[in-house]
Write a structure and sequence with these properties.
Blueprint lengths: L17 H17 L8 H16 L2 H13 L5 H9 L5 H23 L5 H24 L8 H6 L4 H21 L1 H25 L5 H26 L1
Helix pairs in contact: 1-2, 1-6, 2-5, 3-4, 3-5, 3-10, 5-10, 6-8, 6-9, 6-10, 8-9, 9-10
Amino acid sequence: MPRFEWKEDDMAYSLAFFPLVGILIGGVIVLLNGIAPVADLPAAVRILLTLAASPIITGGIHIDGFLDVEDALHSYASSEKKLEILKDPHIGAFAVISLIKWMLLYAAAVTAVLLHPKTDIRMLAVFGIVFAITRCLSGLTSLCFQKAKKEGMLYQETQNRPPFVLISLILQLVFFSGIMVYLHVIPAMMILLTLGFWTVYYHHLTKKQFGGVTGDTAGFFLTIGEILAAAVQAVAVYMIG
């Protein structure tokens, strides 16, 4: 039997399957809140499990990137110094404060969505699909945006990108966005517009602060993108409810 060997060039293909992780997270959340008997658990339990679903499934790797970026941004140092801070395994007070701030916002948004009387399986599916869409965007920004340095995992994954990866991520983004709009037009459009603006701002922020994107900024992008999407959906639920 031929022996499979993982080649460095093959790492670029992994981004094409990144959104599938989001589908797994979203599916677990829909199961927790929309399908009996799990959905019959107390509301507080379901909310906490919903908040924990992504960190448990992914190992919290994106939150680690978020913390590193927050530390770097609050250093107000040069771009070179900020890149050095990203490599530091320790976290500072500002990173912890930022995480608490954003997680409280996320918890409030998740609670508002899950406890609204008009939240049905379609609205839950919209919430779940967000995790796939943000990973499509994270993959595309990692591929297309300028890199801050010519080293590290992100650079290795994207330096020899096959056209298949880019095309696959675009098609998946269109597909998942279309499903979201079909399920619920108003919250879907509000979420997609918000994520679009966030992507543009992320490009500006990373270029100005770091000279480009890194693996840590990709985690930062993903973490805040999911929180913003939840907050916007919470607003949308009460607008149409």
